[in-house]
Amino acid sequence: MTTTYARVPVNWTQEPPHLPLRTEPDPVPTPGCGVCEALGRQRAEARAKGDRSKVSDCNVELRNHQRGKRV
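Below the sequence we write its predicted structure tokens.
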């Protein structure tokens, strides 16, 4: 069985979007808060392993927690 795929021409009429790099510092865990301290430990472990995606996830969770948002 032979499958034929149609070729679709690519037309780049627009420049790609510019997504700025987030440059704000990492959130600081609130002393005495168990959730903040746990997220801070997880972030430190992820950073030591080179898992930048997990570091970013921990930062998002810390910011949301400190702002009182539940996701």
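The longest helix spans residues 34-49.
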